[in-house]
Amino acid sequence: MTFLSNRINNLSESQTIKMAKLGRELSSKGIDVINLSFGEPDFFTPEFVKDAAKIAVDENYSYYTPVSGYPELRKAIADKLLRENGLNYGFDQIVVSTGAKQSLANAVMCLVNPGEEVIVPTPYWVSYSEMIKLAEGETVFINATVENNFKITGAQLEAAITPKTKLFMFSSPCNPTGSVYSKEELADLVAVFEKHPNIYIISDEIYEHINFVGKHASIAEFDSIKDRVILINGFSKSYAMTGWRVGYMAANKEIANACDKMQGQVTSGTSSIAQRAALHAYQGGLESVSAMVDEFRSRRDIVYALLKEIPNLKVNLPDGAFYFFPEVKAYFGTSTGDYKITNAEDLCLYLLNEAHVSTVTGEAFGNEDCIRISYAAAEDKLRDAVSRIKTALEKLS
Predict the structure, then answer these.
(1) SS3 state at 358
(2) SS (HEC) of 149-184
(3) CA 135-202-21 angle, 5° bins
(4) How do residues 345-386 score in pLDDT, each as one tens digit?
(5) Most exposed of 14, 28, 99, 228 (fewest Cβ within 10 Å)?
(6) In this model, does residue 312 exceed pLDDT 80?
(7) What is the domain range of residue 361?
(8) DSSP 197
(9) Rounded to whole angstroms, what are the CA distances from 38 to 16, 24, 105, 289?
(10) Does any domain span residue 1?
C-alpha cells in the first residue's frame, strides 16, 4: 500500500514462516501435513529449566529488567563462554535480548551506515539480508557450493572486500546447510581480516552445541580480531527454548553499550521469567543438550541415507544444526499434470500440495538451486516424509 513506508514495502516476507503458514492452512482442512520447514527442535524444554521459571513467578520476578539483562544472567553467560569456549568476556560485554534474532538486528543496526557493504556467504539465514536492508546497507554475497560443503575460503573473502566493506556476517554451524567451519578453516578467514582492520565480524553461533564433528570452534578465539567479533548465541536451539525468546551477544564494550542503547528504545529488557529460566539452563549443565544432540545425529544419518536413494538429488552430509540443503535443479523443467516445476519455490509448493510435506525454497537462503529440509521431527515422521517426497518426485518428468 502506498501509505506504508518504503522500509516495510521493500522488506521480504520470511519464507520459513510463509511455508509453515501454508502447511497449517492445509492441516486445518484435515490433511496430514508433515512440517519440515521450521527451524525448531521438537523436544520439550528441560524440566529443571521449567521449574526455575515457576519458582521465578512465585518469587515475584515480575518487574522491568535491566535493558541488557539481569547481571547474574550476564555473568552466567560470561562464565559459560570461558568454561566451554575459552573466551574471556566481562559481564558488561554481554547484552541479553529477546532471542538471537534481536541480537543480530541490534548489531547490524548499530554498525552499518547507509551504503556500507556487508559480506554474507551464501547460503545464509533468511533474515540476514533483510536486516542489512533495514540498515540501508548493501549486501555482497559470496556463493558457496555443495561441492565445498557450502563453506567459503579466504581467497573468496579477499576477492569480495572493497573500500566500502564494513561487516562480515555468517553462522557456524550454519542454517540452512548444517555446515561447520573448523578452526583451520576459520584461520584462513582470519588471515584476511587481519589485513583489513576496519571490518567487523558477526558470528552467529546459535547452533553451537548441535555439532557432530567435535568441539565447537568460534572465530572469537583468534585474539588478533576478537575485539571486532560480535558473537551471537542463545538458548532456543540447545535447550529447546524457542518460545522463551532469550538470546545474547558478546562484544567489545563500545558495541555492547551501543546495542544496549538501541534496545532501550525498542524493547527494553527481556522477559524476567525467561531470563531466570535461562540462568538455570546455563547453571544446570549439558546433560539434556547431549541427549538431544545424540538424537539429532541419529536422525541425520537416517535422513541422509534415505535422501541418497532419491535420483537427481545432490546431497552432502551436514556436520551440525538439523537441516539438509539438497540441490534440486535437476527437477527444474519437469512437470506432471497441472504442475510445472520451473524453480525451487515451485518444487516446494508441489511437495506441499502433492506429498503434503512442507519444506522451504533455497532462494530464501541465497541459493535458488536448493531446498531446505529440517529433520527436527520424530523418526517415523521423517521416514514417512522422505518416502512421500520420493514418490512425488518420481511423478515428475
Answers:
(1) strand
(2) CCCCCHHHHHHHCCCCEEEEEEECCCCCCCCCCCHH
(3) 65
(4) 999 999 999 999 999 999 989 999 999 999 999 999 999 999
(5) 28
(6) yes
(7) 6-44+288-394
(8) T
(9) 6, 12, 20, 20
(10) no
- HSE-CB for 316 with a 13 A CA cutoff: 18
C-alpha cell at 130: 533483510
Report the distance separating Cα 341 and Cα 292, nearest Å. Answer: 37
**Widest CA span of the chain, in angstroms?**
63
| Contact (CB, 8 A) for 210 and 63 | no
The CA distance from 104 to 386, in Å, is 33
Last residue of a domain, one of 284, 319, 350: 284
Exposure string over 343-376, b if 16+ CB within 10 A, otherwise e: bbbbbbbbbbebbbbbbbbbbbbbbebbbbbbbb
For residue 63, what are the CA distances in angstroms to 60, 85, 103, 262? 8, 33, 22, 21
Tell which of 227, 255, 284 closes a domain.
284
Question: What is the pLDDT, as a whole number, of residue 17?
Answer: 76
CB 173 within 8 A of CB 207: yes
Amino acid identity of 282? Answer: Y
Locate the DSSP E strands across 276-384.
323-324, 335-336, 339-340, 357-358, 360-361, 371-374
Query: What's the CATH number where 292 sits?
Result: 3.90.1150.10
